[in-house]
Amino acid sequence: MQTNTDEFLAWLKTQIPLLEHLGIDELVWDGRALELPTPLAPNVNDKGTGFGGSQAAIATVAGWCLTTLCLRERGLDCDVVIADSHLKYLKPVTRNFVTRVALDMPEDAENLAARVRERGKARLQLTVQVCCREEVCLEMQGLYVAINRDSA
């Protein structure tokens, strides 16, 4: 079942009010990869470049969205949290940017769902990138944990 991304994003903004302030108005999802195009203007710092805190928040949310979408599309209602993350700020963000995250392997979503069904919870390691002009400006390694609400 493919998710209606407009409905998902509208719901997400009710759950995480910060997203309204970050200027995220679009979510591109193909079942394996997710992109969040984002304007620079609401995320700018005193130097006129992308604020590191905004980038970190958007990267964290992108991984959360991918994990949540993978599970919802497989009929699972889970609490998803980030358990660990490591950020590398590689270059300044100087214009509108896009945050990208994808499953390493197509079967990762099925494996994640199978572990949740078997154990009631599962972990997913993701690499999230914030890109400006196709250059990686931030890279985040994030470990997400999904806990089945039905077994909690």
From TrEMBL:
Stretches assigned to coiled coil: none
Family matches, as InterPro entries: HotDog_dom_sf, YiiD_C
Protein name: YiiD C-terminal domain-containing protein
Domain of life: Bacteria
UniProt-listed NCBIfam families: yiiD_Cterm
Thioesterase putative domain residues: 10-147
